[in-house]
Structure formats: structure tokens, C-alpha cells
Amino acid sequence: MAADGLGDRNVVGARGGGLTATELADQARRVAAWLADQPGEHLVFVDVSSEALPVALFGAALSGRPFAPLSYRLADDQLRRIVDQLTGVLVAGPGVAERLGGDVGLTLVDRDELLAVARDHDRPLLDRAGGDGDDVAVLLFTSGTTGPPKGAVLRHRHLTSYVMATVEFGGAAEGDAALVSVPPYHVASVAAMLTSLYAGRRVVQLAAFEPEEWVALARREAITHAMVVPTMLGRILDVLEGRGDAVGALPALRTLSYGGGPMPASVVERALRLLREVDFVNAYGLTETSSTIAVLGPEEHRSAFASTDPGHRARLGSVGRPIPGVEVSIRDEAGAPVAVGAHGEVWVRGEQVSGEYVGLGGLDADGWFHTRDSGRLDEDGYLFLGGRLDDVIVRGGENLSPGQIEAVLVEHTAVRDAAVVGVPDEEWGEAVHAVVVLQPGAEASTEELQAHVRANLRSVCTPATVELRSELPYNETGKLLRRMLRPPESSDQVR
Amino acid sequence: MTGGRDDRRPSSGRGVHDDVIELRPGQRLRSTACSTELVVVKGSGPLDLRCGGAPVTVLDDAEPVADAVPSPPFDDGTLVGKRYAHDGADLEVLCTKAGAGSLSVGDERVEQRSSKPLPSSD
Asked: Which CATH superfamily is domain A392-493 in?
């Protein structure tokens, strides 16, 4: 469709260089025709966001193969274990083949070889895309919080449904350009490729995030749209403040969207203050739901930020309202809907929601996906998240949301980062334990931090103990790994 | 209607009458009078959907008739990526490939709809 309607538009790469939609389509069709002659089922991709990514993604789709991008940051044995579950062709970035070891059951092709196929004008182009909405489009291995990574299955109908429900074809203006700095194995990268192409917006990739590099690239390419994960935004703001003129630094930027993890309200507020003309979008989604299912839009950010009403102001901590075609319901442990405003598990339903894993279905009998995220909906339908359900602290029969307590701790000026976990407790079952990273040079006593939490939340949320650390454990997509802060399960713990 | 075109109509997806197609969401259709291709977003049951004045057919591998032309007044063209809807027929389609003909249900035009895009989140 993009080649048909937007053929001459530049859709990938640098201004003045890169590929037009027609060129991308031709390159993808060459790769697809070549793939049709290759054995096995998948197209596995182990590389950074290189030039090979768009042609691999679309080439796989046209040839009817599932596209399986894997994290190059996995340990060698973990990577090999996943690769051993797949068949077909593997596109390898530099050094990957060596890491995999011998006797790999797939045809290894390095990045440059794939690009050579794509660019070879003597090669035939795949005539017509066959396949079906039910064919598997992408396999994304989610970093399991318990156990080994699971392969989340997204079929073409899920992705198509998401794109068509949320994007206007060719809706981007001619000069628009999107900066994608999330890696290829993150659902946001797949989504960005699809929605940008469909909208006709040029995609520029940053292979490895570094805040100075991000700002320099955004300037050089006159980036109008960007998507970042929360850990990136604070660092980008540091660089902009360091330059002394944030707005002047990024004159082309119009929309900055963020997601993939909780964003501290103080960082959003700082961003809104520094970049007043920029539209901010908070997007909540999961791999299993083809990325975004709820959005807090630019006007919602601005009106919450400007509001003197605390309830309205608190919206900045919300992930917004469900997008068209998506239903969200908050359920208790028995699966019954909770009262408006009450906490529970976030369930999602819609055409873009897959919830399927390799070898396992994932939707219940009524088509709902149980996200394992805790959250609540306010009376206007705004969704507030509380962290993974597995991380919920059960103290004296009451469920406490670590995310809520962390958000309050991080508002304290001395606190840079915080994680809250449940630790075994004789009296309460679990007690609230906070692990805090202080701002450089700052000091805060346990009592001070406890008083701060007590002043802002129900007293039961007050951490019984506070531990100081120099940093908290995050995985490579920016998710806080609370389970790593809990004491290890052992019989010695039972007193 | 020419005999050649009748031969190309697959039996699946067709209702009892030649002019009436059984619609369902997700179904891919093409014009028999031009290059237009569509996907059904909303719509079910039998409907006399036409492009360029001629009934559309299910998209398959068959080659379109080379000299097909749309009949006026249904020759304004259909644009790729645009949505077209007919409220009376509870129909909405998305154009996936452009063509010279324009859409109608019987003789009633199917109008282009503008969409309200979300803020981009990717």
C-alpha cells in the first residue's frame, strides 16, 4: 500500500539518502523471493537496528515467514537455547555467528549478505504476497520475570488491526521523521516500523541509545516524532538542559511518546516545562497486545499539568484511556470486575490482542488477556498502573502496589530511584521493604523517607525497612527487576 | 456483463444472485472494472457492492480483465488508504490499491470518510 500511494516518499534512512517506499518495497520483494527458496520456517534476526532490519521485517512478511528478532544482549547460552527452537534463516550481525557456536540448525546469513540480496537489481521480485491474516507475523521473546523467555506470537491480523485502528494512511506530512531508538526485539520497534510506513513517515534508527548521540541525531535528521522508554527521557533532558536552550536544540520535534515502563511524574513535568511546544504521549501496551492499548494524549498532558485540582493533576501519572477497539477491565483474583477506582488485575480484549505464546493459547474463554499487571480505572476511564501482579505485596491480607509507593518515594528530592518489594514477615506475612538510590550528594534517613510515604499514602504502605544502593537492577528494555531485590526463598527464612 | 467475466467469478463468497456478494469483515475484494482493491472493515451479509458500476469480486489470483473501464458516473477514482462507507448498508471498506472507478451500493454512492487519527504513540 505504501509503495502504491506514497511511492516517492523517503521512508527509511537519512534525509537525502535512504529508501523511498517503492525502493523499500522492491528490496523487500527481492528478499521475499530469495526466502521462498530457503529451507525452514522462520527468519531470525540477531542484530542491532541496522539497515537490514526493514528489508528483513517486510521481506519475511511478504514471503509468509514469521519474523523472530532476538536480543543480542542475551547471554550466549540463552541465545543459543532460543535459536535451537527455531528453523530457517538467521540474519546475524557482527560477531553473532561466533557466539552461537557450531552445528546451528539454521542457514546463517550475515547482515551484509542480506543487504546484497535486497539491492541486487538482477534478482527477481516476489510477485504477490500470499498468506492470510492468521499467519504468524512476528515472534517476540519476552523477558520472563519467572523462568525462561516465552515466545509471544503476533499474527498478521493483530498487527494489521492495530495499525488500521490507530493510524491514518499517509497521514504524516512530507517532512516528518521518526527516531526509533528501541531495539528490534522490542514490540515498540516493530510497531514503529509499521505505523511509520503506513503513515508515510520516514524512520531513522539509532542502533545503540546514548543521550548525546540521540540529541545530535534528532537535530541532524530534523526529527519530528520520537519514541523513548522512561529511562531514556531523563537522560535526554539532562543533555538538553546542559546545552542551555532545550527548545532551540530540537526545533523540529513535535511529538515525543514514551512507554515500556512507569515514568516518574517529576520527569514528565520536567519535560513539559522544558519542551512546552512538544506534544507528549504516554502509551501503555504489551508485547502480547501488539504494543499500545491505552494512550494519554498531548492535550491530556497539558490540561493535567496546568490544573490546580489534585485529582486532575494526578492524571499525569495515568497511562490514559483505551484506544479504539480495545476494552480494559479490572478484575479481582476470582476474575470478577472490581468497583470503579479499586485495584485489581488489568484485563484487555480487542482484535489487536494476541496473548498467545508458542505452544500456549493466551486468551480466556471470553477473549480476555490477563496482563498480570495491577491497575485501576478512575471514574472517567483513565487507567493507572501499579506494577506487576507478581510484585504486589500482601501485608496483613491487604494488597499493596509497589509502583504506587515507588512513585511517592521518587518524588522526594533526595531520591533518584526506588524499588519496593515484599519481604517475609512473621506478623504480617509480608512487610514493605524499600530499596532506594539517592541523588548524588544527597542524604535522607529511614525516618524521613517513612514520614514522606506516610504523608502521601495510607500508613500501611510505609516501608518497614529502607536499604540504600548505588543502582537498581533493570533489564535491557528498561524494566525494573523487583524480584532480584527480594531475599532468596529458603527454608532458613521461615522463623 | 461479458461471458469472460462470469468465468472468473469464484463460487466462494457469492450469494445466490450474481450481482450480490456475501460480505464479512477482513474479506479482500477487487473491482472488475479497474485496479481498485479493498478490504472490508465493517459489513456482513449480501450486498450489491460495485466499483465503476460493475459488481466487485473476491480478490484471488485470477488476472483482471485487461480492457475493463469504469462506467460514468462511477469513474471518480478510489484512493489508497482511504475509508469509504455507506451508512444505509452498514458498510465500511478500506482501499488497499487505487483504481479509476468509484464505489457504490447499487446506484448509491459510497462516500469517503475522514478518520480521526490518534496521537502517534510509536
From this structure: ANL, C-terminal domain (3.30.300.30)
